[in-house]
Amino acid sequence: FKGDDTCEYLLSSGRFLGEKVWQPHSCMMHKYKNSEAKNCLIDKHIAFVGDSRIRQLFYSFIKLINPQVKEEGNKHGNIPFEDKSASIKVDFLWYPEVNGSMRQRIKSWTEASTAKPHIIVAGAATWSIKIHNGSNEALTQYKINITSIAPLLEKLAKSSDVYWVLQDPVYEDLLSESRKMITNEKIDAYNEAAVRILNSSSRNSKAKVKVFSVSKLIAQETIMKSSDGLHLPESSRETNAMILMNVYCNKILKPIDGSCCQPQPPLTLIQKLAFCFFALSVIGYIIINLIHRNNYRKNKSCADLESGEEKKPAISTPTVSTLEMLLHSFCKLGLIMSYFYLCDRANLFMKENKFYTHSSFFIPIIYVLVLGVFYTENTKETKVLNREQTDEWKGWMQLVILIYHISGASTFLPVYMHIRVLVAAYLFQTGYGHFSYFWIKGDFGVYRVCQVLFRLNFLVVVLCIVMDRPYQFYYFVPLVTVWFIIIYVTLAIWPQIVQKKANGNCFWHFGLLLKLICLLLCIYFLSYSQGAFEKIFSFWPLSKCFELNGNVYEWWFRWKLDRYVVFHGMLFAFIYLALQKRQVLSEGKGDPLFSSRVSNVLLFISVVSFLTYSIWASSCKNKTDCNELHPSVSVVQILAFILIRNIPGYVRSVYSSFFAWFGKISLELFICQYHIWLAADTKGILVLIPGYPMLNVMVSTFIFVCVAHEISQITNDLAQIVVPKDNPTLLKRLLCIAGFFSGLLLFSAIQDRSRH
């Protein structure tokens, strides 16, 4: 750890990921769009001062503002550019040598009467080497001239951003005869002189001229692709321009995936209160622990004195009070949340951009899937979608999704489409699991609802407070929460139809189907009526939960993407349980689900359907078009997988305990990855051990999985305390929770007002 000045890293160090993607050391670089560049540079004046290499950088920079610009005009003269829509003025000033003319121009900006540019990018040396045939006298004169310019640049740096661009190496084999004297040895000597003079001068001044040395590193990798050995290829120039844009604009626009040059965000009022609460929990737990230990020692010594003889202490576990368990859980949670904050809000750990390659996605997938096979065990029961099997299903899907996120595989459309099916399969299980519970148990009590809502939302609510993120940011939890409420309301409203009632009269089955049809019509209406959907979720306080960036469009998009799959899960559960009740299925150990002929036919159809969907997903050309079809066709691959997994008796009778273990903490894994495995709210990768990517992934993954498991335990412990079975006590707790959220809304309103 060398400090939190990521601007210094951005300007001086980095490496290539692949051939064209530049990765700055320790931080993430945002790829600016034209609209973002204009928004950042509105009413700004930028000046590029120097030779033909600076002119190249000038053109690459203005193309970020207006991609239609062509490289025209006098190559050895000044070139103006203006974007009137955003009042942006960018000038290239031709000063190929560091001499009196350049000094005079820079001096004119230091005078009070002249308007100063907001950004100044300067640099030159190759012309001095060329004109003077690489003589030592020219280098001496260069040192004198840059020494005289340095104080003027520092004076400008007090009110403007000033960058001195070091000279890039050349590819000597491609240089023309008139440029053969420009050698890398000479360039290094000029760069060394510039750095020494500018740095020594900056030590005595608060204002600092920033040395743009990263261009030299980029050129070392790409100069051999140059057309003349002197000027950089276009991709390298674009990278340099993007670095300049990040240096200046990141602190203004604060893009999530641009951590370079961004200051640490200040603590909000809610965050301060949260940290105080966790600190008090730690102190309270320590005090109670000390009191209990002291009482235990006193009781032990009294017992020994009364007996008059030495006894071996009986091995007994001291009873843990509800308060102690509560404080213990909050104490652990406080330490874990501190780690979350340090990883993704404090500028303590490094962050890097994702970079997708086929090997970075498929090799870990193959490794994990093979590993899971070695943990095969027999299931306790052999029913379709039994508990072990659904845990296993959640587990391997979650591991695949994690690998998908860390490898940046969303850029590869076939992989994206298959991952969409996995997310849909989670929601399918939501529909299947909750419908099955309510249908079989007939338990529509408040306790069940509160338990489910608490387990789903506890971690996300804590993260919203600690990480200062809206509820909708963790989109999957709002999704499963709303669908659970929809399932509950659908089945709980009059008439309540459950299996026990339906067994007595087949008419009730039709009643339930009618309910499901009404649900399907509501889903269909809302999916094609964006206005109605947004009106429902724009009412306060729902808007506080479902708004992201000031509107609920993101929530509508996420809901619409998998709108039918929960209904499919409910319908599948209904059909399966009806067939099971009529003993149509053979669910004995080792028995095929149906008769041999029917099983073989269904298995063949399932395999063909599974492969057909994969072929279709792999041939997708347009993400928008494929997303439109996805809600209707994703169920094909889900049902095909269920049948393939359950029709053969042997396959249904075994499961992978490795995948099942991860399945039990799949929700925590999905949420925790946002901040302590990935970084910058999933846009990048957390770097705990810089320079060793594989070791870093191993260490961060180990911590991440342990933390997710621990949070799962904490959630289970707190669920027993916060949501008791006793109804009067539960009502009191619900009133307390309502008070807590009312306070949260109040503080949030105060916070928003202070921000505006």
UniProtKB/TrEMBL annotation:
It is a multi-pass membrane protein. It is found in: Golgi apparatus membrane. InterPro entries: Cas1_AcylTrans_dom (IPR012419), NXPE4_C (IPR057106). GO terms for cellular component: Golgi membrane. The chain crosses the membrane at residues 269-291, 355-375, 395-416, 423-440, 446-466, 473-495, 507-526, 561-579, 599-617, 659-680, 692-711, 731-750. Its EC number is 2.3.1.45. It catalyses: CMP-N-acetyl-beta-neuraminate + acetyl-CoA = CMP-N-acetyl-9-O-acetyl-beta-neuraminate + CoA; CMP-N-acetyl-beta-neuraminate + acetyl-CoA = CMP-N-acetyl-7-O-acetyl-beta-neuraminate + CoA; a ganglioside GD3 (d18:1(4E)) + acetyl-CoA = a ganglioside Ac-O-7-GD3(d18:1(4E)) + CoA. Keywords: Acyltransferase, Glycoprotein, Golgi apparatus, Membrane, Transferase, Transmembrane, Transmembrane helix. Belongs to the PC-esterase family. CASD1 subfamily. This is N-acetylneuraminate (7)9-O-acetyltransferase.
